[in-house]
Specification:
This protein has 375 residues and is an alpha+beta fold. The chain is 26% helix and 21% strand. It folds into four domains: 3-105, no CATH class; 107-165, Roll (Membrane-bound Lytic Murein Transglycosylase D, Chain A); 170-215, LysM domain (Membrane-bound Lytic Murein Transglycosylase D, Chain A), CATH 3.10.350; 235-369, Glucose Permease (Domain IIA) (Distorted Sandwich). The chain has nine helices and 17 strands. Strand 1 and strand 2 (102-105) form a beta hairpin. The protein is globular and about 80 Å long.
């Protein structure tokens, strides 16, 4: 029998005796016991509920014996059945909160095997909350919440911000044309059965555009960097360059890292809503913050940007990296802060070897703002 159901039945059965002139003292005594005992029982809600159940059930057995000749049947009490039918669903678990009231426990927060659960939570950030505390509350990893909400920096939470929290660790995925469950499973190195179970798929068939959740999966890592070389113009500039990820971390209170190695040759001003960072040695370009690549344009004029990348960091924040010699990412790919997304170059509206530089834009809710102050 569900402990919460039993305890609630027992307590309310005994509580009815409070107004009985003969056994009123028993009910009052039970109330005193419950009040006094609440100050010394375990703080853990689950343990508190078990303790209350034991005390109340024992007392109720005595009361029931006095009133019905020794027969006690918890299922005959009507109060809790009304409560459960009104406020709970099959599978709900009730626990006692810190004030002693019975409350429902969201299954995703206390299940050892949660594959198949689909009840996403919407969490509203309160003052002083951290991403790690929120993740712990829902028993998922910090990365899972960040991936689901396209959050680049776990320290960028805002009071009132709403976070979508998956029931299990993993990533959301939109099926591409020609894909099957087996192909997706192989791509993300998870089992086909876990995809089927998590998404309630009745058969091994998915369709283009279908949204799935891949339990246990992680965003796909960036492919190996392939540097396109021009032996006439650029070989001498690359001989000592290592296209390695950045090990930098943002300054306190900042969202971005500096996206490359070089000197700022042009700042943010009317007509030039970006920073130009130049370095003739053509160093790697790094993702200023984690996010999803929403554009990776290569081999075109690109509106003057040439080879360029746009990363969506979530919460209306995007960054653009232009004039690159080569790209290391594809559209739809997740990148971590400091990952190599390409090599500095002079494609697009740039002239001469001395024009080798990165044109870096920061865009907030569609408006280009000065990157100064964000790194």
């Amino acid at each position: 029998m569900n402990v919460a159901y039993f305890a609630s039945n027992a307590w309310n059965s005994a509580k009815k005796l409070v107004h009985n002139p003969v056994f009123g003292f028993v009910g009052k005594s039970l109330s005193l016991v419950k009040t006094a005992f609440s100050s010394v029982i375990p703080v853990s809600p689950q343990r508190r509920l078990l303790a209350q159940a034991a005390i109340v059930a024992g007392a109720s057995l005595i009361v029931s014996s006095l009133t019905s000749g020794g027969t006690f049947a918890p299922t005959e009490v009507g109060y809790s059945s009304d409560y459960l039918s009104t406020y709970s669903l099959p599978g709900d678990v009730l626990i006692s909160d810190d004030s002693g009231y019975l409350v429902k426990l969201n299954p995703p927060t206390d299940e050892s095997n949660r594959i198949g659960l689909t009840d996403y939570a919407v969490h509203t950030v309160e003052g002083g909350e951290t991403m790690s505390a929120i993740a712990k509350q829902y028993s998922v990893k910090v990365e899972t919440i960040m991936w689901e909400n396209n959050i680049a920096n776990s320290n960028s939470l805002r009071v009132g911000q709403k976070l979508l929290v998956p029931p299990v660790d993993g990533v959301s995925y939109k099926v591409a044309g020609g894909e099957t469950i087996d192909k997706i499973a192989k791509k993300y190195k998870i089992s086909s059965d876990s995809i089927i179970a998590q998404n309630g798929l009745g058969k091994d068939a998915v369709y283009k555009g279908q949204e799935l959740f891949l339990p246990g999966a992680k965003p796909i890592e960036a492919p190996a960097l392939v540097i396109a070389r021009n032996p006439v113009a650029t070989r001498s500039y690359r001989s000592s360059i290592s296209a390695s990820p950045s090990t930098s971390t943002p300054s306190i209170g900042k969202m971005f890292i500096f996206p490359t190695i070089g000197e700022i040759t042009q700042g943010f001003h009317s007509g030039h809503y970006a920073l130009d960072i130049a370095n003739r040695s053509m160093p790697p370009i790094w993702a200023a913050a984690s996010g999803t690549v929403v554009k990776a344009s290569s081999g075109t004029w690109g509106g003057g940007y040439g080879n360029h990348v746009i990363i969506d960091h979530g919460n209306g924040v995007r960054t653009l990296y232009a004039h690159m010699d080569s790209l290391n990412v594809v559209e739809g790919q997740w990148v971590n802060q400091g990952d190599v997304i390409g090599i500095m170059g002079h494609t697009g509206r740039v002239y001469g070897v001395t024009g080798i530089h990165l044109h870096w834009e920061v865009i907030i809710n569609g408006v280009k703002v000065s990157p100064i102050g964000y790194y």
